[in-house]
Amino acid sequence: MANTNNDFFEQVYQVVRLIPKGKVTSYGAIANYLGAKSSSRAVGYAMNAAHSQKPKVPAHRVLNRNGQLTGKHHFETPYQMQELLEKEKIKIENDTVLDLKKHYWDPTIELAL
DNA sequence: GTAATGACCTTGG
DNA sequence: ACCAAGGCCATTA
To answer: What's the rounded mean pLDDT across residues A2-11?
Structure first.
């Protein structure tokens, strides 16, 4: 099978790893930073193999545009994502991050040059 | 090689 | 403002 370590995947992992503690971002933001705002789905799929990567990727800091923990079900345990986010001082309710804007971390802005 | 799915987002009615 | 459909990328069957 094709190397899952494609540039696209690696790029996504890099950006996710660069997410500061207590910050969260969305798939579209990462895709947009990579220059493919329409590839939000591919970014999400990359996260699917994130746990398969050697360097653990903080996929729990990646949420959808709505701030929902859509991928919590894909973690080792559905509580992992919420717990990790809570440990980051991020309040979660109904699988949704509160003060999303306050904890929002946009790579296109933070990593923008 | 074609069809369907998925941790999504944007646009149209 | 709300609901519905389409699009894009990559992977798997």
So the answer is: 68
Task: Check if the beta carbon of residue A64 is closer than 8 Å to that of residue A54.
Answer: no
| pLDDT value at A16 more than 90 | yes
Q: Which nucleotides of C are covered by protein (CB under 7 A)?
A: 7-12
Length of chain A as a residue count: 113
- pLDDT of A109 above 80: yes
Model pTM? Answer: 0.89
Is the CB of A52 less than 7 A from some atom of nucleic acid strand C? Answer: no
CA distance linking residue A85 with residue A87, whole number of Å: 5
Structure tokens at A69: 């923990």
Nucleic acid strand C within 7 Å of A40 CB: yes
Lookup: nucleotide whose C1' is closest to A42 CA = C9
B chain positions with any atom within 7 Å of a protein CB: 6-10
Mean pLDDT of all residues belonging to chain A: 89
